[in-house]
Amino acid sequence: MNKQFRSRTARGIAVASALALTLTACGRGDEGGGGGSRGGSASPGITDDSVTLGITTPLSGATAGPGTCTVAGVKAYFGAKNAEGGVEFGDGKTRTVEIEALDDAYDPQQAKANYDQLKDDVFAMTAGLGTPTNRAWREAAIADEVPQVLVMTGDPLFSDPEESPWQLGFVPIYQNEGEAMGELLASSTGEHKVAILSQNDDFGEGYVEGFKSAIEGSDNIEIVNELTYEATDTSVDAQITELASSGADVFFNAMSVTPLMISALQKAQQVNWTPSWFLPSNTSSPGAILEPGGAAAYPGIYSVAFSKTPAAPAFADNEDVQTYLAALKEHGDYPDPPAFPHCQWSWMVGATLEQAFAEMTEPTRENFMEALRSIEGFEAPLMLPDTSVSTGEDGQPAVSTVVVQKYNGKGYDTVETFE
Known about the structure:
2 domains; six-stranded mixed sheet; globular; Rossmann fold; alpha/beta; eight-stranded mixed sheet; disordered N terminus; 36% helix
């Protein structure tokens, strides 16, 4: 098999026993607050017949597009399972899975308020989008012993079992994505000048850190200018204009805000700057971002992925894709073709949760976390070749493998070299 450029940190250190010790150390006795249960008694949010999951995610505002997808995919997955009779758990019971989702508009304070509203009624929190919004209630979830798992942030903090014993990220950490892009560029034999624009927070810093580590020592690559922007900014025109004057032929743009990514693509064309672009996976949607941004004007648009793109011709007749699209329309309240990869990712979250449920022998949050941390090499539906779900790697999220892809005008093709 040809080598594909992908980022994988595979230390292979099992953490199940460490997690159990950590949970014991941070546990508070039965009289202490609303999170865990001891001795096998059921935790909040689960009965013999059903389990309820909570989601706080942006359903309005600038990030509503991907945020809506984080709910739609999970609802679609479990809606289809519920229609078939429910999900079989490891304790021998079959349960329906209910979803309670609240809008946080990508506002950390609202995300914390949503968590406070949901925590006593749900078994676990999952799938919500955003680093600042998930961070806003992370410490509360630890104190309350409420699982905050398979969330849509690449912040490494959520995949550190010592710092975050009740957490687990789903998508690759930012450093992994940036590193994979840097590895592809470093494979080029040509001379390249790179301009960087990154979000001024952990998101942007993580991407840039991974990218720079991969190109370090490459004599043919020079970073000629590097700027930042705030996630609350309404325009990056000034930054694009300045970076265009650098003469860079490669643009590494660590940006998470959909409207800003579209306007950046458009502004660069207005100032006659057409470099090759590297984009994060969460702002690389062909239909929602690249087409309105006029991406066809550029010699190459590169990103990373671990899920199939339904719009890509290569997957038009794929059975997994067809099953997913039908369920998304029928059960996910999402009648249109999925505009963001988060729809696929949250479908995978549903499949991963089902794997954990199948290993649960007690209806408790502690037992759920142990089961979730035991998944290894699970090829969830919609996953690309050479990617999988493994939850026991120290410091890594559920998905730590990605492949680099190039935009082909409709979807993406996996690539081995930078052109």
